[in-house]
DNA sequence: CAAACGTGGAA
DNA sequence: TTTCCAAGTTT
């Protein structure tokens, strides 16, 4: 695995490559931590730019700890699982205030911190501190279940896979090994069509020997997602300020900037932020982890009205990029609708020829 | 411990 | 179009 990693390691902004690592270079624990939290349930391709932006805005854990909550949530917007961003800040503040800006160099110490669970603690311990801890993420579950031909379905198989993975973790270069086995899972031992022909583990893989590699790991089927509905209210006042609110800490899109909405359920009760002749401009479709959402977008001119919730934010201080993706979709629809209205106002009669 | 918690790309 | 799934953690 380590030989394979020496020649096939993927380059990433937060990673110290195998050559530099063997020359004695160590990654910055802050950068490793930030990348690992971002990578939770999130692809490398998506994380890259977010990681670079965060490092540019907040180069050290002390910088991040001193940041405004709203700025960090805005920078996280679009990455999803927003509890990660809230815990990221909590963790940075603990490390900065209580630990002199240094991450604990032990599994147990890391596990105490907000947002750091078994995987992230092992990743930090091994990658940043070169401790012989074992990472078990989705990649490792797949690689191990195939090498040992574990037929037990996940998540039941998790403890078994963890024990097997621990047996393979070497005392030498545990950090590079952790990254190697995850790279292998991401590039060779993939969920569909694994590239067994070029796999360094081919000779020792029980699933490959039996020809069942594509069927592993087995998983319990997922529940079908229900569809919920809701309403969202996109409005500006006479000054052109946008009515926005910060969603409650707990729950969906917690802590994020958003337009006011009704509840989201099978039969939502309308909840406009003020009485007006609300106009429905269409429906936004969005899928969350556990349900589909059909969100009907309403607009109205707020004029001089005093809403029951939310705050008017001047257009100059509002960036659509600070919104979570669902709200961004609602914003884009409202923009397109108002653009169309303006265009048709300027050119009221401009019939598009019918194309048969 | 099951359920909650986002999003985008690939098949 | 729909499902699957990606370097999981918290409650």
UniProtKB/TrEMBL annotation:
Catalytic activity: Hydrolyzes free adenine bases from 7,8-dihydro-8-oxoguanine:adenine mismatched double-stranded DNA, leaving an apurinic site
Cofactor(s) required, per the database record: [4Fe-4S] cluster
Keywords associated with the record: 4Fe-4S, DNA damage, DNA repair, Glycosidase, Hydrolase, Iron, Iron-sulfur, Metal-binding
Domain of life per record: Bacteria
Cofactor binding remark: Binds 1 [4Fe-4S] cluster.
Gene Ontology BP term (one): mismatch repair
EC number(s) recorded for this UniProt protein: 3.2.2.31
SMART domains reported for this sequence: ENDO3c (SM00478)
GO MF annotation: an example: purine-specific mismatch base pair DNA N-glycosylase activity
Domain HhH-GPD: 38-187
Family: Belongs to the Nth/MutY family.
Role this protein plays: Adenine glycosylase active on G-A mispairs. MutY also corrects error-prone DNA synthesis past GO lesions which are due to the oxidatively damaged form of guanine: 7,8-dihydro-8-oxoguanine (8-oxo-dGTP).
Record protein name field: Adenine DNA glycosylase
